[in-house]
Amino acid sequence: MSSLLLSPPARLWPYSDTLILADGFEPQKGSLANRSLEISQKNGSQISNPSSAARRASTTPAQTDHFNWNDVNLPLNKQSLATLLKEETHLYKCHYLHHYLTKIGLDRNVFFKNMTLNMYGRCGALDDAHHLFLCSRKDTPAWNAMIGIFTQNGHHKDALQLFFEMQHQSVELTSITFMNVLTSCDHPSTLMDGVVIHAFIVEYGFEGNEFLGSALVTMYGKCQSIEEAGIMFHKLYHPNVISWTTMISILANNGLVEDAFKHFEVMQDAGMSPSRVTFLAVLAALHDPLMLDVGNTIHACITKCGFDCDCFLGTSLIKMYGELALLEEAQHVFDSLRDRTIVSWNVLIDAYAQNEEGERALQLFWHMQGGGLQPDAATYVGALNACLSLESLTDGRAVHACVKGTEFEGHVVVATALVTMYSRCGDLHEAYTVFEGMCHRNVVSWNTLIGEYTEHGFGKEPLQFFYQMLEEGVMVSKVTYLNILGACETLAAPVECMRFHARIWGSEWKTNAALEAALINTYGKCGHLEEARFLFDRTEQRNVIFWNMMISVYVQHGHDEEALALFTIMQQEEATLDQAVALSALKACSSLSFQDEGRSIHTTAVRFGLDLQLDVGTALVGMYGKWGAFEEANVLFGGLCVRNIVTWNTLIGLYAQHGCICEAMQCLQKMKEEHAQPDRFTFISILSTCASSSSVEEGKALHALILSEGLEQCISVGTTLISMYGKCGDLEAAHSVFDKMHEQGVIAWNCMLATYAQLGLGRKAYEFYLQMLDKGPMPDAVTFLSVLSACSHAGLFEEGLSCFSTMRDGYKIEPKLEHFGCMVDLYGRSGELKEAERFIYKMQLEGHALVWRTLLASCKVHNNVEIGRLAAKFAIDLDPDNPSSYILLSNLFAKNQMLKDVAVVRERMIERGLSDCLDAVKS
C-alpha cells in the first residue's frame, strides 16, 4: 500500500448514468433502493407518486434491466444521504452512492466527501478511498479520515507515512489525528515513531487530553515499553475503568502478573469497579501454579461483582483452572454456567486433554453431541488431543469418523491435528493420507508432517517434504529448519546440513539462537566437529545451552579431552553451571586417565549444589564406579536423599560390568528390601554378566526372580535370557524360554539363531532359519548375518550361497561389510580361494582390509601362498597397524619353510612398532 502515497492512480470511475441491477438481484428489505425509501420517508422527504416509485424500485430483472435514480424521483435530503453513507457496508452499493453524489454535485461537499471516504474505509476499499483522497481538496478531516482508514485496515506503515506527510505539509493536527495514528504504533519496531508522535502531542498542547493519554498508554504497552506505559498511566488525572484495564492488560500480557494484580487491587481501592474486560485481562495471564491464590481472589471478586454466571468470564475461569491442573474447580465452574457455549465445552475438553485425562475429555466430547451441540474445529482438536494423551488409535479413528462428511473435514487445523494424532499413535501411513487429502496446507501442517517423520527416524522423506513445501510456495519458518536439521542428523548427512545452513544464513533466522544451537548439534552428530566448534566460537552470546551442546558433542564422539578443556574454559568465563553441563562433563571422566578432572568437577558440582540433584548424584556414582572406586561410589549412593530405579540400576550395573556378580546380587536384594521395584534394565545388566562369565547358577536364580516379578514376557528380558543360557551352553533352557515367549519377534528368533551358531550347531541353525522363513517373522540383516556365519563355520557351502541370494533378491536387503566378510569366509573355508578373490572384485570390496584378512586366513588353512601374498598386500596396505595380517602371512610362510620371507615380515612389524606381537609369529 505504500506505493499508493506516491501518486494518484490514473483511472476513471467505472459507473454509468444508471444503476445496473446484477443478475438475480431483487430489491428486498435492506436493498439500497428500499433502504433509501425507508430513510427518505423517516426524514420527511417528499415523494411524488410514492406507490409508482416504490413499484419501480422493487421491479425484478424480469420486468426491467435498469434501475435509475431519476426514474425513482427521490429528491433525498442530506440527512437521508448521510445516514446511507454512514451505514452502508456493501462495496457495489457504495459505488452507486458515490456515483449518485457525483451526479447531484454533493461530491464536492467537504462533509459528504469525508463521509464517502469513511464509507470506503469501512468496506476495506483502500484503492477507492485513497483515489478519492488524492483527487480532492485535502483538509484536516480528510487527512484524519485517510489515516484512520489505513489504520483500521492494518496498513500501519501507510498511516504513519501519511501522518508525517501531513505534518510536513503543515496541515493542522488535531487530537483525532493523533488518536488515529497512535493506533498504528502497535509493535516494538514502531516504538520510535510512537515516541516522535508523543513529542508532537506535547508540542501541540494535547498531553492533558485524557483520551490521548490512554492511547499513549496503549501504544507504549503494545510496543513493549512497559516503563513508559506506566509513567503515562500515572500521569492520567482521572483514569477510568478502560485506562485501568488497559494498564492491567499490558502488565499481564508481558508476564508481570504480580504487578497486574497490584494494579487490580489499587483500582478497587480507588473505588473503581472492574469490568468484565478487566477480569478477562487478569485471568488470561494466570498460568503459573504459584499464582493460584491470585486466581482464587479474582474468582471471588467476579462472584462479588455479580459476574459469576457470565459465560465469557466462566469460560476464562475454566481455562485458568485447567492450566493450573485444577480440574475439579474447572468442572465446578462449568457446571454453574447457565448458558454453555461451544467455547465453554471446548475449553473444558481441552483442560482434561492437556492434563492427561483423555478418557474424561472424550466423555465430554460425546456427551456434548448427545445434547445436540455441534462440534467446531476447536472441539475436534481437543478430542484428538485427548486421544493423544491416551495413545489410543481406536478413539482417534472414532473422532476422525465424526469429522468426515462435515465442513471441518478439510479444515487445516483439524487435519493437522489428525496428522499429529495418527503419527504419534503409530499409524504414519494414515497420517500421510490425511495430509495428502488436505485442500489447503499451511506452514504449521507442513511442519507437523516433517516433524513427525523426523521423530520416527526418517531422514530422506522430511527432506523431500521440505522441497515439495517450497514448490507449493509455502514460506518456511524457524520450526521447519529445526525439524529438517533433525532429519540431517538422522541421515548423518553433513552435506545436506551445509545446504540448509546456507539457507538459514540467507534468511531472517540467521542469528536465531535456537537454530545456531541446532546447527552445532547437527554438525557434531554428523561427525563434523570442526564446523560445530567454528559455529560455537563465532556465537557472540553463548548461554549455558551452547556450552552443553558443544561439550556433549565432544563426549558423544569420544573426544573427552576436548570436552574437559572446553569445560575449563567455560569455568574461566564464569558461565553458569547447570545440571545438563555437569552431566556431560561427568560423562567425559569415565576413563581412569581423567580421575583428577572428575574429582574437580565433583567439587564444582558441590559448590553449585548440583550434587544434591538426583541425576547428578547418580552420574557421580556411575563415574566413581567406572573407575572401580566402589567404596566412594557407595558413600555417594548412601548420601543420596532420594534413590530412584535409575540410581539402583546404575550401581547394580557397575558391579555387573566389573564382573562382581555376588555384589550385584546383594545390591539387588537390598533394593527389594527397600521396596524399590526392579525393572527390565536391572535384570538385563546382571544377566549379561552371567552370560560373559558362564555363571549359569546365578543366571537361573535371576530367572526365578524375573518370573516372580512378572517380567518373563518382556522381549528384551527374554532375549537376554536366551543369550545367557546359550553362552552357558544350556541349549534346552534357551529353547524353553523362546517357546514360552508370547511375542516371538525377529529379535527373539535372531537371538536363538545366534545361540545355535555360537554352540557350533550350524546345521541346526540353518534348519531353524528355514522354520523362521516358513512361520516366523520377516528376517532382517542380523538374521542373515547369523545364518551366513553358521553356514561358513559348518561348511554348508550351497546353503550359504542360497541364504545370500535370498537376502539380496528375495528380501531386498542390502548386504553390509560383515555379510560380505562371511561370504569370503564361506568360499575360503570351502577351498574356493579363487572364487573368493573374484567375489571381492565383483562386489567392489578391494578397499576393505577385513575381507582381504579373511581371505588370507583361508589361504593359511589351505596353504595357498600365491593368493595369500596378494591378500596380505591389500590387507597390510589398507590397515598397516593391524598385527593379525602380519601374523597370518608370517605363519603361512613358516608353514612352507620360507624363512627369509618370515624374517622380512618380522622386520616390517618392528618398523611399525608391533614388537609386542612377535611372539605370535612362527620362526
TrEMBL record:
The keyword Repeat applies. Keywords: Repeat. It comes from the Eukaryota. One of its GO terms (molecular function) is RNA binding. PPR repeats lie at residues 139-173, 240-274, 341-375, 442-476, 543-577, 644-678, 745-779. The keyword Repeat applies. PROSITE patterns: PPR (PS51375). Residues 48-62 have a biased composition (Low complexity). Gene3D superfamilies: Tetratricopeptide repeat domain (1.25.40.10). PANTHER family: DYW DOMAIN-CONTAINING PROTEIN, PENTATRICOPEPTIDE REPEAT-CONTAINING PROTEIN. One of its GO terms (biological process) is RNA modification. Coiled coil: none annotated. This is Pentatricopeptide repeat-containing protein. Residues 39-66 are annotated as: Disordered. It comes from Adiantum capillus-veneris.
